[in-house]
Amino acid sequence: MTTTDNAAASDSAPTALEQAVTTTDPVALARVWGFGGMTSILLGAVAGLLVGLERLDLASADVFGSADEVFQFWSAHRVAFVLLGVLPALMALATTVVPRQCGGSLVFPRAAAMACWTWLVGAGMTVAGFLVDGGLGTPGGGGQREATALTMMGLLLAIGGLLLASVCVMTTIVSGRAAGTGLRDLPYTAWTTLVGATVWTGMLGVLAANAVLAYVDLRGRPAVRFGAEDAIWEQLSWMFTHPAIYVLALPVLGIALDLVSSATRTEQANRDVLLVATAAFGFLSFGAFAQTFFDTPGTPVAEEAISVVAAFAIVPVALAIVGGLADTLRRGAGNLGSKPPAEAVCSVLAAVLVLAATAVGAVRVIAPLELLDTSVTGAHFALVLGAVVLGVGAGFHHWGEELVGPKGRRPGLFLLGGLAVAGGTVLVGVADLVSGLLDQADFTGVDLATAGNPDSGVDGLNLVSLVGSLALLGGLAIWMLTGSLHTAANRKGAA
Amino acid sequence: MLTTGFKLWFGFFVAVVFAAVFAGYTSGATETGPLSLGWKGGVGNHVSYTILVFAAGVLALFGLVAVAFRDADAEAQAEVLGLDEAPAAQHEVGSSLWPVFGALGVGTLGVGLVVHPAVFVIGLCIVAAVAVEWTMTNWSEKVSGDPAANAEARENLMRPIEIPILGTIGVGVLVLAVSRILLASSVTGAVWVATVVGIVIFGLAVLVSQRPDLPRVAVRGILFVGCVAVLVLGIVTAVSGEREFHHKGGGAHQDDAHAEADH
Amino acid sequence: MASTVPAAPTRPRTLVVASAFGTGSVVMYFGCLFALYFSIRHDAMAWGAQWYPEGAIQLVPGGMNMSTMAMSAITMGWAVHAVLNDDRIHAMIAMALTAVLGIAMVNQTVFYFKDIGLPIDASEAATLLFTIVGSHMVMVAIGVLWLGLLLLRALGGQDTSRHRDLVSAAALYWYASVAVYSVIWIGIYIAK
User: Fold this and answer.
1) Taking the CA atoms of chain B, what radius of gyration do you get in angstroms?
2) How many CA atoms lie within 13 A of A179 on its CB side?
3) Is a pLDDT exceeding 60 seen at residue A371?
4) Is residue C163, in this structure, part of any structural domain at all?
5) How many whole angstroms separate alpha carbon B235 and alpha carbon B196?
6) pLDDT band at A6 (very low <50, low <70, confident <90, very high)
7) Over chain A, what is the mean pLDDT?
8) What sign does the CA torsion over A409, A414, A415, A416 have?
9) Which end of chain B is more exposed for a tag (fewer CB within 10 A), N or C?
10) Per-residue DSSP letters for C137-162?
11) How many domains does chain C have?
C-alpha cells in the first residue's frame, strides 16, 4: 500500500457520504432496501388513493385529465407496490436476517451492494419515467414514447438488481450455512425465502424478457405489436395478479411462523408438513405461464384448467400453513401473556389475510361469474399486497434491534400502524370484491363503459374502498414515523 | 441419501413437468405432443407449455447441483478441502467503490439506450473498467493472508495502469470541455475566457504553493469544484452549440481559410 | 512485498452454486422469448400466413454459429479439465480459444444481421428474431468478458485446482449459452 504520513492519512479518511456509498455491510444496505421499499409502498398507496378518488365518479375525469393519466397512476400503484416496494423490503430482511438464521454472513457482499444500488438507480428511473408522462404504456396512446422507454429501462434495472440480490441470498442459504445446519433445519423465514427466491428469480427473468421485447419494439419506429402503447402493460400484467403475486406472500408466511414460534416460545409441530406446504405454496405461485396478452383464439389462459386448478389448490395449502400457525398459538397461548408482541399480532393478521386472499383468488376464476376483468382482481391484489406489507412490517419490527439498534422501539405505535394497515386492506379488499360482483371493471377509466357499467351500489363501495386506502396510507405513515424515530434514537445514542 | 435441496428442486421439477403436460392437454394439445416436446402432435397453449418446460429444465439443473454438492453443506465442503471444519463462506470485505460505480455504469448503459448511443458507450466503458478493477481486487485478496500485502500487490499491479489511463481520460475530458466553452464563446470572448481562467488557475496555484499547511481536503475541494465547473460549463456549451463559422470566399474548405462571426 | 502468510482457504462451490442460480434466471429469460416466438409462429402458420419471407433465413449462418458454439463447449470443457489438473498453460489456451470462438460467433451473427435484408420492424417474426438472437449475442459477449477476466486472474497465477470454481462457474454459464443457441438453431434457423 502506498505509504502516507499520519496527517495525510487522517485527511484522506472517508467522508460520511463516501462511507455510505462504498459500504458492503448488509445491515447498512438493508436500510437502503428497507427505506426505499417502504417509501415506494407509501408512494404506491398515494397513487392508489388518487385513483380511488377518481373512481368516486365513474362517468368523468375529476382528479386526472384523461383516462390515460388514470391508467398511468393505476399501473404505477401496482408497480410501486410489487417491484419497487415489497420485493426490495423483503430483500432487506433476506440479506440480513436470513444469513444470520443460516449461521453465517451474506456471501458476495460486494455483488449484493451493487444489486442494491442498481435497484435504486432503476427505481429512480422508473419513477422519473412515470412522472414525465411515461409509465408502462397508455390505452389511448397519450403518453410520451421516450418517457415510456425510460420507465421500461428503469424497470429492467430494478429487475436486474433484485435478481442479483436474490442470487446472493439463495447462495447464502445453500452454500453459506454453518456446520450442522441442514436445509431442513432452517428457520421458516430462511426456508420460505429460498423457495420464494427460486420462484421469483425464474419469474423476474421472464418479466425481463417481456420488458425487453416491448422495449425493442417501442424504440425508434412504429411498433409492430409488442411495443404499442396500449399493449405494454398487458404483457407485464401477469406479474401483478394471480398466481404470481402469491410468491410475495410466501416469505411473509415464513415470518409469521417464526414470529409466532418466538412469541409463544413453542416449536411448530409437524415441521415437515409445514416445509412441504410452504414449498407447495411456492410452486403454486409460479405465474409466468399465465400471459394473457398472448392468448390465442379459444380459452383464455386465465380460464384454462391449469390456472383454475392452481387457484383452487392454493387454498387448502394456505389453510394448512395457517392451521399450523393456529396450532402453535393454541399450544403456546399460555406464554403469550395479556399483551402479545405487536409484531406477532401483525404477522398472524397477515397470514389470515393471505388465506382470505387465496379464497378471493379462487372465487375470481369461477368461469360463470366472469370476474377476471372486474375489480375482484383489484381486491385480490389489495388483500395479498396488504398482507405482505403487514408481514414485512412485522419482520422489520421484530428484527429492528439487529437492523437499526436497541433504542427507541415503539411497539404501541407500531401496533396502531399495523392495525390501520390491516383494517385498510380489509376495507379495500371487501369493497372491491363486492364492486366486482356488481360488474365494476378492474381498471375503471373515466367513463361508464370502461368501468363496466356496474350496478348502482358501487358508488358507496368505492367510498368505502377510498376510506380503506386512507387507513392504509395512515398506517404506513405511522410506520414510517416509528421507523424514523427508532433510527434517530439509535443515531443519537451512537453519537 | 437424497439431500433436502435435491428433494425440493427435483420435486419442483417433477411437479412442473406434470403441470406442463397438464397445461398442454387441457389447452388443445393433440396426440403425444406434450409428452414429446411437440415432436409428435400439438402442445396446446405454446406460451404456458414452453415456459413450464424451460422452468422444469432450470429446476432439474438446481436439483442436480444440489445433489452433486450434497446441498453444499459445510461438512461436505470441508471434506472436499480435506479439512475438519469448512472455512467461512465469506471473509469480511471492506468498503468498495466498485459496486456503486458498477451500478452507475449499468445505469448509464440504460440511460444511453434511451437517450443517445454516446452515453451508452460511456456506460459500456465504465462497466468494463469496473469489471477489471473488481476482478483485480478479488485477485489481490487471494494473494496471501495478509491484507496489507494484498493491497500492496494490487496497487503495484494496477497503479501503473490506472494512473496513466485516468490521467489521459481526465485531461482529455477537460480539454474537450474547455474547447466547447471556447468554441461557444465569441472570438474576443474566447480570448477573455482563456485569459481569465488562466489567471484564476495560476492565482490559485500560487495561493496553494504559498500555504503548504493548507489541508488536503481544501485542495481536493478546490480541484473538485473547478473540475465540476469546467465539466458543467462544457456540457452546457456543447448542448447550446458552437458559434457560427463563415468560410472566406466560399471556396474550398480549409481550416486556415475561414473567418468567424463575432456575436 | 511478498507475504509468507498463505491466503485463507475459501469455501468451495459457492461461486458455482451462484452461477447455477444466475444462469437459471437467464435461461428463463430465453424460455419466455422462445415461448412467445413459438406461440406467435404457430398462430401465423395456423392462419396460413407467411412467417418469414422466402429465403430470408439461411441455414448456413445458423449452422456455422452452431458449430462454433459446439466447438466452444469442447474448449470450455478442456479449460475446466486443465484447471482441475493444474495444467496452467492448457487452461489459459483453452480459455482464450473459447473466448475467441465466442467473439467469432458474435462477429458471424452481426455480419448475418447486416446481410439478411430483413428490417427489425418488418413483422412480429423479425422483431422476435432480432430480440432473441440479439439477446443471445449479449449473453455470449458477457461470457467472453467473463473469460477475459478469468484470463487476467490466470495470468496472476489463480488458475490452479485451488481456484477451479472460478472456471467451473463460467463454464456452467457458457454451457447454458450453447444450450440456448441450440434451441435457436433448431427452433428458428432449421424450423424457420
Assistant:
1) 31
2) 12
3) yes
4) yes
5) 20
6) very low
7) 93
8) positive
9) N
10) HHHHHHHHHHHHHHHHHHHTT--SGG
11) 1
pTM of the model: 0.92
pLDDT of residue C4 exceeding 90, the answer is no
Q: How high is the ipTM of this complex?
A: 0.95
The domain boundary, picked from B30, B50, B81, lies at: B81
| Minimum CA–CA partner of A184 in chain B | B4
Q: Which of B113, B112, B106 is nearest to B127 (CA)?
A: B106
Is A443 part of the contact surface with chain C (CB cutoff 8 Å)?
no
Q: Which domain holds residue C157?
A: 58-190
Integer Cα distance of B85 and B206 in angstroms: 62
Give A232's contacts (C-beta < 8 A, 6+ positions apart): A136, A137, A148, A152, A214, A218, A226
Please tell me the distance from the alpha carbon of residue A182 to that of residue A185, in angstroms, as a whole number.
5
A269, pLDDT greater than 50: yes
**CATH (domain of C172):** 1.20.120.80
User: Quick check: is C19 in a domain?
Assistant: no
Query: CB neighbours of B221 closer than 8 A, spacing ≥ 6?
Result: none
Residue predicted with more confidence, A222 or A106:
A106
Is the CB of B149 less than 8 angstroms away from the CB of C5?
yes
Range with the poorest average pLDDT among A75-89, A119-133, B247-261: B247-261
Phi and psi at B258, nearest 5°, equal -135, 150
The mean per-residue pLDDT over the stretch A462-475 comes to: 97
Q: Is A131 helix (H, G, I), strand (E, B) or coil?
A: helix
Domain presence at residue B261: no
Evaluate whether residue B214 is within a structural domain. Answer: yes
CATH fit for domain A25-40+68-240, picks 3.40.1170.60, 1.10.8.420, 3.10.50.30, 1.20.210.10: 1.20.210.10
A243 vs A120, A194, A289, CA distance in Å?
Answer: 27, 18, 10
Substitution target in C13, C25, C139 with the highest count of A β-carbons within 10 Å is: C25
Q: Do C28 and A205 touch (CB under 8 A)?
A: yes
Distance from CA of A183 to the nearest CA of B (A): 6
> Taking the CB of residue B207, how many other CB atoms lie within 10 A of it?
11
Number of domains, chain B: 2
On the question of pLDDT at C72 being above 90, the answer is yes
Kindly tell me the burial class for residue B164, based on how many C-beta atoms sit within 10 Å of its own C-beta (0-12, 13-18, 19 or more): exposed
Question: In chain A, whose CA is at the least distance from the CA of B51?
Answer: A289
- 3-class DSSP state for residue B253? coil
Kindly state whether residue B18 falls inside one of the protein's structural domains. Answer: yes
CA distance A425 to A429: 6
Mean pLDDT computed over C114-129? 91
Nearest to C31 by CA among B49, A334, A18: B49
Instruction: Give domain status of residue C124, yes or no.
Output: yes
B5, closest residue in chain A (CA to CA): A183
Considering CB atoms only, which of B27, B51, B114 is closest to A304? B27
Do the domain assignments include residue C52? no
**Long-range pairs for A70-73 at CB < 8 Å and ≥24 separation?**
A70/A443, A70/A444, A70/A445, A70/A446, A71/A135, A71/A138, A71/A139, A71/A233, A71/A443, A71/A445, A72/A130, A72/A133, A72/A134, A72/A135, A72/A138, A72/A143, A73/A47
Task: Measure the CA–CA gap between C120 and B139, rounded to whole angstroms.
Answer: 42
Range of the domain at B220: 165-244
- A touches which chains (3+ CB pairs under 8 A)? B, C
pLDDT of residue C3: 52
Q: Are A57 and A97 in contact (CB under 8 A)?
A: no
Closest residue in B to A276 (Cα) is B8
- Chain B neighbours (≥3 Cβ pairs under 8 A) are A, C
Write down the pLDDT at residue A144. 85
Nearest by CB to residue B152, choosing from A1, A154, A301, is A1
Name every chain B residue with its beta carbon within 8 A of the beta carbon of C163: 142
